[in-house]
Amino acid sequence: MTTKAPESAVQFTAHELLALLSVNRGAGEQGTRSMLKLADLPGDADLVRAGFSTLVVRELLETEGEKTSLRGPAKVLAQILTTANLWVDVTVADRTSTSVTFLIESPGGRVALFIRPAGIVMGVPLAPTVDCTAMALDMVGKNFAAHERDSLVSVRRRVQDGPVAAASIRRTSERGWEFTSGPADQQVTADAAVCTDLDEALARLRDELGSASEGTTAHGA
């Protein structure tokens, strides 16, 4: 299953994201790189320069002498990605496909990133009142409600200077609803908690994701 991006989505390449992240170094930028698994490259690296070049072609970057300034959706996205303080990603997998969506909060706004093949990312600004954790839970519930195929949905939630919470809900025709938590590479199906229905699995997921924010106030208003 591939999560469909809204028509308002703006397309960016991985090279362009590297360029946007290079304009404002800091904790938010590093957190975004980590969650998106983007390399930490210097501003004059070939891949970063390629990203800036395509932004110029798309009229999302203005140059005047040695001075450059981002425009439109590129400016908005760069501000959010480099000052982010909360990241949530939702991975949906079944026998035929896998889709990944990132939900990111910062003092400057919120954005959803829909990951597509060939290094393409579809970016959608979200309303400043959107709670990205609640949005992720809603996405999980709607995914399972949309079909009855065997599938796995994994969610990670990270706050700035805080721990990462990770958990998964699996539905299979043989075992029904199962819930596991902890790092994805340490989640073992044999240790999964069997749930009576989706509501119980979502309640467990909500509790697990909420634990990531304990002891920190990094979550934006």
Description:
There is one protein chain. By secondary structure, the protein is of the alpha+beta class. It folds into two domains: 9-84, no CATH class; 86-111 and 128-213. Helices cover 31% and strands 33% of the residues. The chain is built from six helices and eleven strands. The strands form two sheets. Strands 1-7-6-5-4-8-9-10-11 form a nine-stranded antiparallel beta sheet, with helices on both faces. A two-stranded antiparallel sheet has the order 2-3. Helix 1 crosses helix 3 (46-57) and helix 5 (132-146) runs antiparallel to helix 6. The longest helix is centred in the middle third of the chain and has 15 residues, at 132-146. Residues 212-221 have low confidence and may be disordered.
Outline the fold blueprint.
Layout: E1 10-13, H1 14-21, H2 27-36, H3 46-57, E2 61-64, E3 67-70, H4 72-82, E4 86-94, E5 98-106, E6 109-116, E7 120-126, H5 132-146, E8 151-159, E9 164-172, E10 176-181, E11 193-195, H6 198-210
Helix pairs in contact: 1-3, 5-6
Main traits of this protein?
disordered C terminus; 9-stranded antiparallel sheet; 221 residues; alpha+beta; 6 helices; two-stranded antiparallel sheet
Strand order of the largest sheet: 1-7-6-5-4-8-9-10-11
Number of strands: 11
> What structural class do you assign from the helix and strand content?
alpha+beta
Distance between the termini: 32 Å
Whole-number count of domains: 2
Provide a count of the helices: 6
Radius of gyration (Å)? 18 Å
